[in-house]
Write a structure and sequence with these properties.
alpha/beta
C-alpha cells in the first residue's frame, strides 16, 4: 500500500510539469528514484555534488544514471569565506545542497529518521523555502511515512544495490547507516576521526 501511495503521489507531481528527483546517493534516494521510474512520468534526477562526498558515491550516482550538478563554489572555497562549519552553523548545507534548480522537487525525506524531521514534516507535500536564497519549491515527499524496514524490504524486493557506504568489508548491507559529507559536524568526534583516517587525502 505504501508503494502504491508513493507512486500515485509521484504521478500527480508529474502530471503538469517535469519534476526533479533530488538524488543524494543514499538509500532513500535510491528508493525514490526507483519509485519515479515505476511511476512512468518524465523527470530529471539531479545529484548536487558537495565535493566532499564519501569515496565511491560519485561512481554510484553515475551507475544509477543520475545527472551531476556541481556547486558554484567547492567546499574549500566556502571555507575560505566562512570558516569551519559546526553543529550550530551548518552553512555548508545551504551553500552546497539546498538550492533551487527546478520548481518541483521529489525528495526522499522520512519522519522516522530523526525527532526533528518528525516534528518539521507533517504533510507529504509543501512549499519548501530555501532560507539561504529565499527561493521556494514545490516539494513532494513520497516516502515520508516509510520505516527503515519498509526501505530495506523495498530495496531487496527491487534488487537494488546501494552506495558503498552501506556495506561493510564483508559485503554485508547495513541499512541503518547514513550517507553524509565526510566529517559532517553532526557526527560524533570518533566518527569524524575514523573518516579522516579512511580518507586522509580528502
Amino acid at each position: 500500500r505504501k508503494v502504491e501511495r508513493a507512486v500515485k503521489l509521484i504521478q500527480q507531481a508529474g502530471h503538469d510539469a517535469i519534476p526533479e528527483v533530488a538524488y543524494s546517493g543514499g538509500k532513500d534516494s535510491d528508493v525514490i528514484l526507483e519509485l519515479a521510474r515505476m511511476s512512468g512520468i518524465e523527470f530529471r534526477a539531479l545529484y548536487r555534488n558537495t565535493t566532499i562526498d564519501p569515496p565511491g558515491t560519485i561512481k554510484h550516482v553515475k551507475e544509477r544514471g543520475v545527472e551531476i550538478v556541481r556547486p558554484k563554489k567547492s567546499f574549500l572555497e566556502v571555507l575560505e569565506n566562512k570558516g569551519i562549519p559546526s553543529r550550530y552553523m551548518r552553512f555548508c548545507c545551504s551553500e552546497l545542497k539546498e538550492y533551487k534548480i527546478m520548481p518541483r522537487v521529489i525528495m526522499g525525506i522520512r519522519r522516522e529518521e530523526s525527532p526533528k524531521r518528525a516534528e518539521n514534516y507533517s504533510e507529504p507535500t509543501e512549499c519548501r523555502l530555501y532560507k539561504h536564497s529565499g527561493e521556494c519549491v514545490d516539494a513532494i515527499y513520497p516516502i515520508l511515512d516509510w520505516t527503515l524496514k519498509d526501505v530495506t524490504e523495498f530495496l531487496e524486493n527491487r534488487n537494488l544495490r546501494c552506495g558503498p557506504v552501506y556495506y561493510d568489508e564483508h559485503g554485508v548491507f547495513h541499512p541503518e547507516r547514513r550517507l553524509g559529507c565526510i566529517c559532517c559536524p553532526l557526527g560524533s568526534r570518533k566518527h569524524r576521526i575514523d573518516e579522516f583516517k579512511r580518507c586522509p587525502n580528502l
